[in-house]
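Ticket #4471: structure output looks truncated?

Reporter: J.K.
Steps to reproduce: submitted the chain below (342 residues) through the standard prediction queue, then opened the result file.
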Amino acid sequence: MSDPKTVRSPTDQERQALEAMTREAVGRVAMRAQMILLSVRGYSAPTIAEIQDIAKVTVYKWIDRFDEEGPSGLYDQDREGRPRKLGPDAEAELERVLEEPPTEEGYDASRWTAPRLARHLERELGTEVHPDTVRRALQRLEYSWKRPRRVLPKPPGWKKRLEQIDRRIEETSSETTVLFEDETELRRFPPLRRAWMPVGEQRPVSVPDQNGKFFLYGALDVGSGQVITEAHPKGKTCYMKAFLETVLAEISGPILLIWDRASWHVSGAIQDLIEAHGRLEVMLLPSPAPEANPVEDLWRLLKNQVAANLEQSLDALEAACERFFEQLSPEETLRKAGLSAS
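Returned output as attached by the reporter:
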C-alpha cells in the first residue's frame, strides 16, 4: 500500500524560501527544506527517508511541522523558557557588530557565526539566546550565510582618475567615438555554473583531454552599442596592434580609447601606433578597477552563456562567441554593459 502522507502545497513565497534554505541554511535545516521539496514533488515519506538516510518518523515530523508553521517551522525550537524572538536592542546589536570582524569586539576569531553571536549577546546585553534564534533574527534582518568576495585595494587617486575620464567623455564632440577596450581569456576547460538538475543528482561536465585557450579582444562603442571583437592566441603586443588596426579600419573619425594598464596596452610599439594615427586618443583606467570597464560585464555574460558547463572545441567556442555578439542588439548591449537605465 502506498504511503498517502505528503506535504501540503506551498505558496510561491514558501517555495522560494525553501529553495533558499537548501542553499544557505546550515546542516539539518537545509536537509529539512530538501525533504519538504521532495515531498512537494510527490516522493513518499519512506522514499525520502531512504534518500536522506533517516527514520520515517523524522520525515513525518517535519512534514507536520511545515504544514502547521511553514518554512520557519523547520528551524530548531528554542529551549524551554527562552523567548522565540530577539528584541529591538539585540537586533540592533547584531547589525552593529556584523559591520566589522569579531576581532573588533575582542574575539580571537575571523568571522561571526550564530553561536558566537549568541555568546556576544549574552556578554554585552545579558540576553541568553539559542543560536537558532540568532539565525532566525538574521533572516528577518535580511542577512544570509554565503561566501564573501575578494576585492583588491584601491590605489590613491583612483576615484579622481575615473572622474577625469568621465569629464573627458562628456567633453567629446559628436564626431568622436568613445571606445572601451578589454581582453578576456576563454578555455576549453569549461567554467562551472549553477544549473537546473534533478534533486539528488549532480550532472557531470565533460573535461577535455587537452586544454586550450584563446584571447578575445573587444571594443565597445558606448554611443552606438557596437562591439568589435577579434580572437587571437594570447594577450600580446603584436595581436593588440592587429586588433587596433581592425578597429581603425571599421571606425572613421576621432576615437577616444579607454582601457586598462595591461603591458600590451602601454608598450612602446603600441604608443608608436597611437602616435602614427593622429585620430587616436588614449586614457588609462586606474589599476585595479575592472568594474570601471563596461566590457567586463559583457565578458561575464558571454562566458555564462556560451562557455559554462559545456566542453567544446576552440573553433566551436570561438564561433559561439561571434554569434553571441551578432545576436545582441545595440540597445541590449548597452543595457547589459550597464550603460543604459532602460
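Triage note (M.O.): checked the attachment and the full C-alpha cell line is present. Residues 47 and 53 are 10 Å apart (CA to CA).
Status: closed, working as intended.
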